[in-house]
C-alpha cells in the first residue's frame, strides 16, 4: 500500500509540482507573461484536487461520517467521471453498516476500491456490479464484470491482489476469484 501511494505521489503530484517549478523558472525571465501565470494557477488547482483525492483515498472522511455505503458510492461517483469508465450498478444492504467495526469498514472499503480499480484498469469491461449483502449471517461483497477475465497467476502475483488478500485476512474473511456469471469476465 505504501509503495502504491509513493508511486502515485511520485508519478502524479511530484511530477506536476516539478513541471510547475520549471514554469516558474521561465517566468522569471518574463514576469509579465499573464498567460503563463494563468496556466500555473490552473496547474496548481489540478495539483490541489489530485492531492485531495489521494488524501481521501487514504482515509475517506465520508467513511467515518456517513458510513461505508456512502464512501463506496462517493468513490464510484468520483471515478466514474474518468474516460472509458464502465457502466456500473451498486447494490448495498443497509444492515451492513451496523455489523462492521470501523477498522473492518476501512479494510472492506480498500478491498472493494482495489477490486473496482482493477476492473477499470485491466478488465476492458463495459459493465460491472458492486454488491454487498448479508447471506446466512455472513457478509458477502462482490465485484463482478463482463471483461476479459483474470489469469490465475495474476491473482497471486499482483501487489493489489495480494493486498486484498492480506486485508481480508485481517478481517478473518475469505477472498475468491471466479468466472463471472456474465458471458465473460471475473467475479471477485
User: Regarding quaternary structure, how should these chains be classified?
Assistant: single chain
**Over all CA atoms, what is the radius of gyration?**
20 Å
Q: Quote the distance from N terminus to C terminus.
A: 19 Å
Structural class: alpha+beta
Main pleated-sheet profile = 3 strands, mixed
Strand order of the largest sheet: 1-2-3
Mean pLDDT over the residues: 86
* Approximate strand percentage: 5-15%
Tally the helices: what do you get? 7
Bulk shape: elongated
The percent of residues in helical segments reads 55-70%
Total strand segments: 5
- The residue ranges in which pLDDT falls below 50 over 5 or more consecutive positions are none
The ordered H/E elements are HHHHEHEEHHEE
Short key terms for the protein model shown above:
alpha+beta, 3-stranded mixed sheet, 188 residues, 57% helix, elongated, 14% strand, 5 strands, 7 helices
Question: What's a quick, concise take on this entry?
Answer:
By secondary structure, this protein is α+β, with helices and mostly antiparallel strands.
Amino acid at each position: 500500500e505504501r509503495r502504491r501511494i509513493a508511486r502515485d505521489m511520485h508519478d502524479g503530484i511530484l511530477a506536476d509540482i516539478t513541471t510547475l517549478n520549471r514554469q516558474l523558472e521561465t517566468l522569471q525571465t518574463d514576469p509579465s507573461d499573464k498567460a503563463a501565470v494563468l496556466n500555473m494557477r490552473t496547474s496548481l488547482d489540478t495539483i490541489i484536487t489530485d492531492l485531495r483525492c489521494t488524501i481521501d483515498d487514504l482515509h475517506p472522511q465520508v467513511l467515518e461520517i456517513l458510513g461505508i455505503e456512502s464512501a463506496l458510492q462517493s468513490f464510484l461517483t468520483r471515478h466514474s467521471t474518468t474516460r472509458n469508465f464502465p457502466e456500473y450498478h451498486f447494490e448495498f444492504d443497509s444492515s451492513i453498516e451496523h455489523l462492521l467495526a470501523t477498522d473492518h469498514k476501512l479494510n472492506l472499503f480498500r478491498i472493494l476500491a482495489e477490486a473496482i480499480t482493477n476492473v477499470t484498469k485491466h478488465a476492458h469491461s463495459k459493465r460491472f456490479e458492486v454488491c454487498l449483502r448479508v447471506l446466512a449471517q455472513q457478509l458477502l461483497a462482490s465485484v463482478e464484470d463482463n471483461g476479459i477475465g483474470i489469469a490465475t497467476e495474476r491473482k497471486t502475483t499482483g501487489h493489489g491482489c495480494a493486498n486484498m488478500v492480506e486485508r481480508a485476512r485481517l478481517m478473518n474473511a475469505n477472498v475468491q476469484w471466479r468466472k463471472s456469471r456474465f458471458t465473460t469476465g471475473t467475479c471477485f
